Structures
1.
Amino acid sequence: MAAPERIASLSTAPAEWSPSSWQACPQAQQPAYADATELERALAQLSQLPPLVTSWEILSLKRLLAEAAAGERFLLQGGDCAESFDDCSSPLISNRLKVMLQMSLVLVHGLKLPVVRVGRFAGQYAKPRSADSETRDGVTLPSYRGDLVNAAAFTAEARRADPQRLIRGHARSAMTMNFVRALVDGGFADLHHPEYWDLGWVKHSPLQDEYRAMVESIGNSLRFMETLAGEPLGSFQRVDFYTSHEALVLHYEQALTRQVPRQAGWFNLSTHFPWIGMRTAAIDGAHVEYFRGIRNPIAVKIGPSVTPDQLRRLADVLDPEREPGRLTLIHRMGATRIGDALPPLLAAMKASGRTPLWVCDPMHGNTETVGNGVKTRRFENIRGELDSAFDVHAAAGTRLGGVHLELTGENVTECMGGARDLTETDLARAYKSQVDPRLNYEQSLELAMLIVRKRGALQASR
Ligand code: PEP
Ligand code: CO
């Protein structure tokens, strides 16, 4: 009988999408706002405020990501686990930009590939939590969900989900974005300025000779090309930075989802490159529903519990047209699990003829808690997962096209190990993160150099 089959196929056809259609789906990790009218008022205001990015920037990033998936570029995506409203300051923003810029130059030079730079900033204000509430000394309060939702202090007032924070988050993102754009346009990334090459850190590194040689070689190449051209090369004064964040609080994302003249469809104009976190990637959930309808390039974080079948279905829903640059898959398995967990997923995508951009996040599968309940990550495990990622992709015939890191331009002591071999005792010295531990300035640059080394070794062994 044909009829039941027809009904079955009709019922699985995607329903009409709208920026608010996610509201009819199961919603994970959303704040509980006590006052619906207060929320409505904030959202009405937010939906009238100007966007943070433009559709043409979004579409040009999509083209760059397509090239990264095709092996012609490498993606460097990094920044804080969570930005905070208090950290929206000039030195923190410029130091973060500087470390990303230096890492990207190490990668460009070593990989001989252009690098796409994407910050986890200008909107990375919301966090998924493993529990909805937290109990201290017999007092239970809602969990801290990032500055977009509530505040970290352990008081009832601080932990209240406050809709006004959505407006403040938009404003802080705009300030960050404005400063980043001004720095980039004003020649902050000008390679002619040697002060951007802070060499202090290499004194502690076993990689110091390599690093110095690389800095020298970049300077020489630049001078050589300028001699050929007979003038300073303007294109070396400007680089592009794109923004990304976990699009977690869907009311916020919806209010910044807009239509623009001369383009079909809807764009999330709060960021260039939103991603779905591991805890909100359920196929029938609100986040997947929201993401399927926007035209931005999008990413999904995938952990060791994702099955090949789930991944196939996610890819079909989120990228039914198989559009180049649309879908990035960020795997975050953990150093000890990547060898088993990743190959079946690579095989599944390959078998279905898909070529997503594969990116390794070597941070989130390697978080551990040491004495006094401090959350940390070991540099060796971060490095180990990245090394394995290159090997696993090489064995599968797929390509690792980028890295996703939690880092800061400050000299914090949150991750152990690295050139200075930070120990558990060092963690107390400069641990600033409210959430996950970040690589500090030196550890970040060191990791960039190790990526280059690993890729070089792999190519030499072929
Ligand atoms: C994060 O990127 O900060 C995060 C929470 O990651 P994941 O969703 O992969 O756990
Ligand atoms: Co994190």
Note: Confidence is low (pLDDT under 50) at residues 1-11.
2.
Amino acid sequence: MAKRKLIAAPSILSADLTRLGEEVLDCKNSGATYLHYDIMDGHFVPNITFGPDFIKSLSKYGVFNDVHLMIDDPLKYSKKCIDFGADLITFHYEAVEDAIEVQEQIRKLSPNVKVGLSIKPRTPIEKILPLINYFDLVLIMSVEPGFGGQKFIPSSLEKIKVLRKHIDEKGLNTLIEVDGGVNAETIESVRDAGADVVVAGSYVFKSKNKREAIQNIIGE
Ligand code: DX5
Ligand code: ZN
């Protein structure tokens, strides 16, 4: 049986920042259609990465800009991310009081932007099932957010399966994105659980053969 084809979203957090443009082009030429930006504020997560300016610089490569906001106040920086070329803004359920209100406010900033909702490993999937139909994408964190290169948390697979069943039963178009610790050992279980989009940082940028890693994610 043919493998389910997935969308590969390399995370530039693990890229060689001294050659970032080349790295992005390599990913694009290897079949990646998304580019994953991990924006961290040092508050919501114990790390500080980069800001919306990176989106502005890398938009010229014409890849779908998948922006993962791990910040306390996602609305505060959403407009700048969108102005600089974000195609998808994903914020964390744990960072806001009212996720539905926040997604409405983000959609008012641009009619074309896609909006995603993310949950940390310790947040039960049942918390967000009633909200799914408001979002274009749900991002399941399969590591504790904050750093690349961590080990995949196996209990994430059950969350993906529950979400897949819910989306299929309701006939929703919401995509499932999985983020953290995905590599050659874990990709097939993530695919079989029902993911649509897979983020990979260290697996893509630390491997000797980026094309092979990306093609393996896609399922070519
Ligand atoms: C972690 C980030 C991930 C991370 C993935 O907080 O959200 O996107 O960069 O990196 P790997 O694939 O190395 O776990
Ligand atoms: Zn991420």
Note: The mean pLDDT is 97.
3.
Amino acid sequence: MTTPVRDQVQHVFDRCRPLTGGAVADYIPELATVDPDQFGLAATVLSGETAGFGDVDTLFTLQSVSKPFAYALALELRGFDAVDAHIDVEPSGEAFNQFSLDPLTGHPRNAMINAGAITATSLLPGDADEATPALLDYLGRFVGHPIMLDEKVFRSESETGHRNRAIAHLLRSVDVLEGEPDDVLDTYFRQCSALVSTRDLSLMAATLANGGVQPLTGEVLMPPLVLRRVLSVMATCGLYDGAGDWLTNVGLPAKSGVSGAILAVLPGRVGAAVWSPRLNEHGNSVRGVAAFRMLSDEFGLHVFEVHRETADVRPGGER
Ligand code: DON
């Protein structure tokens, strides 16, 4: 990565550091114990080279950023027909923890809200003893090292996650959920408590930007059609009821989590991640949203911004 690009990313970091608005998530009690001032920002190009600033190596829990990866693994292991028979691909415009079932299809509206994400996890083959290690192994291949869990966060969410238990039982009552709610939630709460750093997340984003190929290991982690599906759902649903504002102003497929993480992808160019625990009213990191807005503006990252090389499509489909 050239020095001017690094400098520009650092400039964005410096400008976002003074932002102290928002509040740390406390509905999972253990999440509220984090130092709210922490802030990491990283961008990774397709060679795997990362420019990172601030607390880029501090570990935090993945939370909802695990959802696109669980969805991808379900699509890969069970196939599109099986997954689409349970989860739709429509933005909900609702909060992440909404009791959301489409009145016509009876399915959760998408795999980024909890109802759809819990369903996606239920579609992973086997019970929690089989599904959890398979999913953690999959996540580990994106970051290039084994994934550890934050056992305190896991226990904290498992003990207090009554709303997710209610959602899982609702899904089971209408035969959307495969398996037993408590067993599925065991895997779901564990995937949410997977520990990563901002640097890890940036590499995960770069893998998605790089056609599903992990830049450092060369391993294909998402086949093209699974990647296309996952990025499409991230673009339309990744930031919940803040998704429209995000797509309009940042314009990148992305996923946020209540630990304060946001991962975003510009296909074919770059992956990036921000972590800072204070959240806005939609449950998205305040500094994260601000930083991505600035990065998108400064580097012209919005997917609907036409650059000369992409506009230069010649007749007959040649480029
Ligand atoms: O299911 C939950 O409530 C959490 N483990 C994850 C929610 C989450 O990260 C929503 N993101 N903004």
Note: The chain has 13 helices and nine strands.
4.
Amino acid sequence: MSAVIISGKELATEKRSYIKERVEQLISSKSVQPTLAVILVGDDPASHSYVKAKKKACEEAGIKCIVEQYPTSLTESELVNRIDDFNKDCAIDGILVQLPLPKHINELAIIEKISPEKDVDGFHPINIGRMMINQETFLPCTPYGILEMIKSLKVSITGKHVVVIGRSNIVGKPVGQLFLKEDATITYCHSKTKNMEEITKRADILIVAVGKPNIITANFVKDGAIVIDVGVNRLENGKLCGDVNFQEVKEVASYITPVPGGVGPMTITMLLQNTLQSASKKANKLSKSST
Ligand code: NAP
């Protein structure tokens, strides 16, 4: 039997309408306008299209989105200065520096300059640390979106074997941590993993975040597994595809995410959620200090 397709697009629409309601409440009851500042450096076409999609999603949810664009020649210290300005500006609830940055700028150093209280991407080492020890924080958007997708299926995660392929700081590593917190058993695979097929075949939930088109075929997947495809790859014909061979794997899996329309829309939704969370926290602090 063919797998049920998990529509990230539909789930994202549902969640965004709830976020919009909460944004409206925050504006009307606390006079706080949730605001996200996005910094885009250089002319990478994919980055430009991601930023455009984020701005559109913010505006549809009633979140103000300020986009600042700079040429590739921007220096690291100029970028740091701009981040500092946003850190100090009380009207800004979230700061996002679109990655990748030009090669002469140290990405990790830049992420560390964003105030952890405004790091709505959830990439700051302090926020990653808070996530590891289960403290309240901004969860990184893609892993957070994946967890929300699985939770929407109403299947139990406890005791499930989750296999994550990929160990990047923004997807692979944190997604495993989020499922560990949900009492799953986690195995990570990466480019040096031997006999990967034997490991992935034992996954109840298989999360693939590699960035290579169609590398996961049906023989990597256990009958009835849930398969989450994070990969976004542009083929020579201009079409987008994931890391999972969708046509083959959907015949084996119980649930599967498509590309496009799967993880991507949920990633942006969780960015809206994190910005709202930051603005709500600020509103609560303001009300406490005025009483
Ligand atoms: P990344 O930093 O390049 O990491 C890729 C990971 O895949 C690395 O850990 C690498 O292993 C592993 N890998 C590479 N070849 C492999 C192989 N043949 N077998 C097993 N593992 C292999 O990428 P990323 O930032 O995590 O992104 C992964 C994909 O997700 C990309 O296509 C990206 O565009 C997409 N993405 C999508 C969203 C979304 O919202 N939809 C968000 C973020 C990323 P090593 O560590 O050993 O090198």
Note: Residues 142, 165-168, 170-172, 189-193, 209-212, 215, 230-233, 263-264, 267 surround NAP (CB under 6 Å).
